[in-house]
C-alpha cells in the first residue's frame, strides 16, 4: 500500500508522531516512506531498533521505486468486427503487446453488425507517450466517424518499463 | 392452406415464436453467446457434411445445371435488390448496396427450415442442395460490394471485405464440411451420423429460439426503418423466390428441391454479409440491413414464405 498524498491522512500521521519526536513535522514526510512502513515502525519501542528499520525501509523503498516507470495505458473499446484491424494498427504504431477482453455495453449507436462474431472488445496496451499519440491519432482519423469506438489514455506506473519501450 | 398451417405447427417455427414472445414479455431468457455460436457451428458443419456425402453419390451431370442456375441468381439478385432500393426506395448508394449484399447472399437457417418443411410433407429434396448454399453465399455479396466501387463511392476496404467473405466462419464450415463429407463418403460417415444427423433438428429448435430473441430486439427498429423497407423485405423475396422457381425447374430440380432452392435464393444473409458490409461500406447503417434481413425477411420466410414457394413450385410444375 502506498501512502496517498492527502491532507487529512498526513495530518493524522503528524499528530501520532509528534509526541515521540522521532519523525518530526515535515510536509514531505508522506513521500519518504509508505504508510505500511510507518505502521510497522510506530510499533517499535526500542530507539536503536527503530533506527535500523528506518534505514531498511528507505532502502526497500528505493529498490521498489527504481523499477517503476511512467507509461501510458491506451484503452480502445470497439465493435468486435474491428478487433484484428485495431491490433494491426497498434502494432504498426509501435505497441509491443496488448490485452483483449470481451465486454458488453451500450451507447449512442447501439446496434452491432455482427452479433455472431461477439459483442464488443476492449483492447489495452501500455506504451510510451509518442506511441500513444500515434495510436490516438490514427484511430480517431480512421474509425471514430463510422464505427462504435471509444479511445482513452491514462498515465500508469509499470515495472519492467523496457518491456513497453519506456 | 394445409401446407401453411402445418408449417406454423412445426417445432422450429413455434420455437422462433417463443423466442419473440419471451422478449416481448421481457423474460430474462437468454442463451449464452457461446452456446449460440456452438450451435451455429454445429448446424453449418452438419449441413456441409450431409451435403458432401450426398454429393459423392450424385452424378456430375445432375449437379451442373443447378450449379449454373445458382451462380446466375447469385449475380442477378443483388442487382435487382439494389435497383429496387436505389430507384424505388431512394436509398443512398451505401445503404442500397449494403442491403442488396444481404439479399444476394443466403440465410442458412432459412435453407434448413425449408428442408425441414418439405421433409415434413413427406418429400425428399435433392441431397446436393447444401453445395448450392455454399455457392450462393459468396457472389451476391461480391457483386453488391462492387456496385459502389464502380460508382466510385465506396470508402471502406474492399480487400478486407472480400477476405471476410471468403474466410468467414460460415463459408469455412460449409465448404469444409462438404469436402469432408465428399471425401469420407456414405460408409465412413456412418460413425459420425448419430451426432450430426439425429441431433440436428433438436439443435435447430434451440437455434431458432435464440433467433426469435434476436429478431424481437430488431423489431423496435422497424419504426425507424420505414414502410418502404417492410415492403421491400416482403416483396423482393417473393420476386426472387418466383424467379428461382423458374430457374430451379429449368435446371431439373424436383418440386421439393425447387421449393428449397426458392427459399434460399429469396432469403437474406445475416451472418456472412453483415460482417463484410460493415467493413466495405462503413457508411451503410447496420440497423437498416439487419432489420431488413433479420427483422422482416427471415420471419416472413420461415412462416409464410416457405409454404408459398412450395405452392409456386407445385403450381408451376403442373404447367410444364
**Oligomerization status of the protein chains:** heterodimer
Tell me the total number of β-strands of chain B: 0
End-to-end C-alpha gap of chain B: 23 Å
Write down the secondary-structure element order of chain A: HHHHEHEEHE
Poorly predicted regions of chain B: none
Shape label of chain A:
elongated
CATH class of the largest domain in chain A: Alpha Beta
**CATH architecture annotation name of the largest domain in chain A:** 2-Layer Sandwich
What is the overall shape of chain B? Answer: globular
CATH architecture of chain B: Up-down Bundle
Strand order of the largest sheet of chain A: 2-3-1-4
What is the structural class of chain B?
mainly alpha
> What fraction strand of chain B?
under 5%
What order do the SSEs of chain B take from the amino end to the carboxyl end, as H and E? HHHHHHHHHHHHHHHH
**Which percent range fits the helix content of chain A?**
40-55%
Number of domains of chain B: 1
Give the C-level CATH assignment of chain B: Mainly Alpha
Number of helices of chain B: 16
Detailed description of the structure:
The complex is a heterodimer of chains A (166) and B (320). Chain A folds into two domains: 9-64, no CATH class; 68-164, Alpha-Beta Plaits, CATH 3.30.70. Chain A has helices at residues 7-17, 29-32, 35-42, 47-67, 83-93, 129-142, and strands spanning 69-79, 99-103, 120-127, 149-158. Chain A has 166 residues and is an alpha+beta fold. In chain A, α5 runs antiparallel to α6 (129-142). Chain B is globular. With 320 residues, chain B is mostly helical. Chain B has one domain (31-212, 231-317): Up-down Bundle (Na+/H+ antiporter like fold). Chains A and B meet through loops of A and α3, α15 and α16 of B.
